[in-house]
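Q: How would the structure tokens look for this protein?
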Amino acid sequence: MVVTLIILAVSAIFFVNGKIRSDLVALLALISLMVFNILTPAEALSGFSNSIVIMMIGLFVVGGGIFQTGLAKMISSKIMSLAGDSQSKLFLLLMLVTSGIGAFVSNTGTVALMLPIVVSLAMNSNTHPGKFLMPLAFASSMGGMMTLIGTPPNLVINNALIDAGHKGLSFFSFLPVGIICVVLGTLLLAPLSKLFLSKDDDKKGTVKKGGKSLKELANEYQLAQNLFRVKVKPDSLLINQTLQELNITQKYNISILEVRRKPTTQNPFLKTINQKVAGPETIIRENDILYLLGSFESVQKFIEENKLNWIDTHQTEESRPAFSGKLMFDEIGIAEVVLMSNSKLVNQPIKKSGFREKYNVNILGIQRHKEYILQNLKDEKMQAGDALLVQGEWNNIARLNEEQ
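A: Here is the predicted structure in token form.
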């Protein structure tokens, strides 16, 4: 008994410390129990065949499927549109949505699913993410109390009842108690989160500890004013050609940032639009939506010569189409990076920098001495101290941090 308690205590210390992965700590604890003959190998490994363990593994698969099908992205967009600019509405919607998902997915899976959504929503609403993360954890636990599979203890209780010869619980046996917990928990957490989780930055209306928000960057570099959307017509000259073959940047002095197209599958549970960063090997297809960055005159010339259609028909005072879509930063985002004095890119023109080829990211603009360079970027030589606005998939943008 003493050895068992010592192993449990040491395991708890390592779990709290976090320097060693939790799964390794658990396996080492299991091996220790076998080494000291507290458990036989059969007893130690019996848990891996337990129906609860298999159920929890299946719930993680469900959580991964929610990400892959784009449901997480849809949830984020819907919550943002319903909440508007109200933090109270956003808090309430996050609590209800998280509790609803937590009723059918494990607590850990629910938090893993909602965490990036919550951080993104907080950034978009100009709120510190910490204000929602603690309520998120509580909401996932409270939601798990509503169904049989919502949390492992419910399954353990059900198995114990069946093993003892009693009738098992139904799927929604916990629902009445769970609903009461969710309602009371939400009413309690709303004032407590404002009292204990508010930051000084929130009171001033700014949350710039981690830098500029995505919306601030987009406005600062006037992305919407220089961004245009066009559709590839069936008789377009671009169809079945790669961007490298077309050499659009050199010919028209514009950049194709994204290519969006409908997937070939008609499965309603999969993403309705495929969004991808435009690279040298990207092939243009019929009905593709191209996101173009450049001057209106250059884009207009490109459209007329290659048989494309404007998507944005709203006209500005200058009688030119204006970008009427939403700047979405889900899989693809923007970031500002600073060029250090010892960088190999100093004094190199952008067209020879290899940003797109090496990192698969685009340079959208340069901030230099409080001035913004947004046009004719391909021939612009980069200088030490330049702030570059880059666009690409988040994992590719993260790779830039590894470069000096």
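The beta strands are 227-232, 255-261, 274-277, 289-293, 308-310, 332-338, 362-368, 371-373, 387-393.

The two ends are 55 Å apart (CA to CA).

Upvote if useful.
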